[in-house]
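User: Second chain of the day. Same drill as before.
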Amino acid sequence: MLVGHSYAGMVITGVAAQVPERLRLLVYLDAYIPAEGQTQSDLWPAEMRAAIQSDEAAGRGLRRPPALDFLGITDPEMAAWVKAPLTPHPMATYQEPVSAGGAKSVRLPRAFVHCTGGPSTPVFAPFAARARAEGWEVHELAAGHCAMLTMPREVAGLLLELAGARDPHA
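Assistant: Same format as last time:
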C-alpha cells in the first residue's frame, strides 16, 4: 500500500506507473489525482493558481508554504511545531507532468480519503468526486487537510482497515 497526501498524489501516481507490480493499493489522502500528462498546477483552482503564480516568491522559482489554518492546523502548539521546519517549495515540481502509466498501473485498486473539515475542502472535493465516479473506495474524515496530524488515530485506523481489506494472508 502506498499512501500520498496532498502533493504526493502526484508522486504515488508516478510510482505506480513505474513499478505497479510492487503495489496492491494506492491511497490518496486528500491528494491530487492527475490524469496522464497533467501537472499539479493544472489541477489548482484558477484563483489559487493565479495567487500562487503572482506571488513574488514564484518569481524566484518558489512557492511559499500555505497558511497553517488553510491546512486545518489551528492548535497553536501544533502550528508552531509544523511551522518550524517549513520552507518554500520549488515551483518547478508543480510544472512536471506525471505519467498515469500503462494498463497494469491503471488497474491498481485505489482509495481516496477526503478531509471535509477545513478551508482546503473545496480544493480537494473535485478529486473525491472523480474517485467516486471512477468507482474507487472513498472515505471522508471530518478533519482539516493535515488529518494525519490532527486526527492521527483515525487516519491510522482507516489505513489499517484499508490494508487489512487487501491482505492476501488474512
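The mean pLDDT is 93.

User: Great, on to the next one.
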